[in-house]
Amino acid sequence: MVDKVLARGGKPSLCVCGGGNASHVYMALFSARGYEVNVFADFGDEAEKLTKAKEENGGVVAADRCDPSNLKEHKGTVNKISKDPADIFPQSDVIFISLPSFAFKPILDKMKPHLKDGAIIYYLPGQGGCDFIVRKEMAEELASGKLSFCGVMPMPFNCRISEYGKSVGLAAFKDQYDLAAFPGKDGAACGKLLSDILGKPVNAGGCMASLHLQGANPNIHPARVYGMWKDWDGKTPYAENCLFYETWDDASAVYADGISDERCGIWAEICKRCPTAGKPADVKGIREYIFQCYGKSIADPSTTKGVFSTNDGYKGFKCPMKEVEGGFVPDFKNRYFSEDFPESFAIYKGLADLVDYPTPVIDTCFLWAQPYMGKEYITGEPGKAKLNGKDAMETKAPQAFGYNTLEEFLG
Q1: How much is the pTM?
Q2: pLDDT digits over 151-197, tens only?
Q3: What CATH number should be reported for the domain whose range is 217-410?
Q4: Domain range list for the chain
Q5: Which CATH number fits domain 2-206: 3.40.50.880, 3.40.50.720, 3.10.20.310, 3.30.70.260?
């Protein structure tokens, strides 16, 4: 449990898993703040590439443009990089994982034999069903106090690697966070520790279901891609790949608000049926939630369209498209589809089914996207559809883990 980490005194030893965009910022930021940072990188030749870059550059530089009027850099040098879990996890008090949810169980399996007593896992962002996996695979460790698991929303950074292992561009560092923990009694202490590490306020003690229903990527990406391409004929290329957020339009805002209303309604119904789960106010509408995350980075927070199109933290990101002869077409293998729909959007739908809550906008987005993806997650018509298609059990919905009632899901 977290008390064991705090009892050791001093700054905890941090582990960063993977060599992706967010991991680069963790390496730079945490090392620059005086934490010992070790990196577990077991995908391909990540460890070798990161080690070589460290030798050449002396550390990772995060070019911070969160405030365009105050550009700065954070440079940090990690302690150890390895693909061998025995080199990293026995000395790791705190483990940060910001990877696609499909990568979580393989890392968990490698970590498990080497876990330090009292270790804490922070999974950011906390959507994607990883709490289901850890509850199943690490039940004994959670019950004994050997491990605390925390889902945290939102993803801390908008960032892109500039040069692998050497530099990363940091466009946004979100202002505040929600945390839910297993065991629940560890939530407050884990939240305080995370706040110290990030240097940002953390609201701890929430229900994991409320994290799954927050307005992050599964609210944003399906609404935007449907708003842009719902009338596409499936073959004619677009002339350009436009900017995803700066060109956000009224139609996309309508669908984002529709999904937002539905997920807030699902949570309100959960609270009605189980008042101990939390309060309806724990899950915020999309405009309020994005403003809570980005604050002063948004020039016009008065509309849903504005919190995306005038947000400095969202500038410069292209659409999930691929180049073909004659222009660009939607890329249905991109993570905006291959991850967001089954890994988190399906959790919205799965929770809706647990409380029989109608979701016509969520259904509409699913029914449009899934044929292009070669999948069938839901069947039926908008407002009456259910997560019972032939590929439903490939998702991270509660039903795929055997939670078929609200009582089972909430434990």
Answers
A1: 0.84
A2: 999 999 999 999 999 999 999 999 999 999 988 889 999 999 999 99
A3: 1.10.1040.10
A4: 2-206, 217-410
A5: 3.40.50.720
